Amino acid sequence: MNIYLFVYDLMQFCGHSWIFTNMIIRFMTFGKDSLADTFYSIGLVMRLCQLLSVLEILHILIGIDKSRFLPRFLQITERIIVLFVVINSQEEVQGKYVVCVLFFLWNLLDVVRYTYNMLARMGIYYLPLTWLNFSLCIPLYPLSVLAKGFAICVSLPYFESFGTYSIKLPFPFTFSIYFPYVLKMYLLVLFTGKYLIFQKTGSQHNWDAYGKKKIKSVPGLSQILTLSATSPADHCREVHHYLF
Asked: Rounded to whole angstroms, how far apart are CA atoms 125 and 225?
């Protein structure tokens, strides 16, 4: 199964690194003009990568991936909802700068994550990459949540104007679904859920810091990691699972 997971991580790495490199080169070549047509240039590959990421849920369910199910499920479904339901369905939203920012954050996180995963499949844990993988999400993940929320807010006027996904059933049902209300409810759930995750992560961090104060003699890095995990990767993975 490690070979299969390695191939999967390699495919995702190739896709996200192509997107990330394409965005950087286009921005260096065309400047701010490249931001408006980001979706048109990389949208197809982005959609393919996100659809492929659904396999990660299956990996967890059948037990070949030891990641936590709920955080990964929420992360993947959030991206699919924002990408396919919000951005892909509204052409007016696709040219907004927030789409470029969101894609940049997603791909930066994923390029590092899949690079780390590929090396981990081979039992290689490069310390700077390990630190980057589990530290980069601290500033970028909240920013990506804000970018997702802003993208949804930007799309609301267009969903209201065009009535996309809004449903009104005829008599005798007299039942209707106004999709902008659904998006507003989703925004509330999104930010509430992320707040609870960050709060839990902060509580875990405070608990770990309190426990370390009880240690009179401070051991080396490898000894600290050994106290809480069988390997450095196991220790980092436990902290990282709260966010992913």
From this structure: 13
**CB-based contacts of 107, cutoff 8 Å, min separation 6:** 16, 17, 19, 20, 23
Each residue's pLDDT tens digit, 64-117: 888 888 888 988 999 999 999 999 999 999 989 999 999 999 999 999 999 999
Distance of CA 135 to the CA centre of its chain: 14
One-letter identity of residue 216: K
177 phi and psi angles, rounded to 5 deg: -120, 115
Q: Which residue shows structure tokens 């930066």?
A: 108
211 burial via Cβ count (<10 Å: 0-12, 13-18, 19+): exposed
Q: Where are the beta strands (DSSP E) in the chain?
A: 167-168, 176-177
For residue 129, the SS3 value is helix
From CA 140, how far away is CA 32, in angstroms rounded? 22
Is residue 2 within 8 Å of 100, Cβ to Cβ? no
Tokens, residue 31: 């400047």
Q: Who contacts 52 (Cβ-Cβ below 8 Å, separation ≥6)? A: 8, 11, 12, 15
C-alpha to C-alpha distance for 198 and 190, rounded to whole angstroms: 12
Number of neighbouring beta carbons within 10 Å of residue 77 = 12
pTM of the model: 0.80
d(CA 100, CA 17) in angstroms, rounded, equals 15
User: Among all chains, which residue has been given the structure tokens 């199910």?
Assistant: 69
Between CA 142 and CA 202 the distance in angstroms is 13
CB 106 within 8 A of CB 12: no
Tokens standing for 89?
């369905």
Assess contact for 197 and 243: CB atoms under 8 A. Answer: yes
What are the beta bridge partners of residue 177?
167
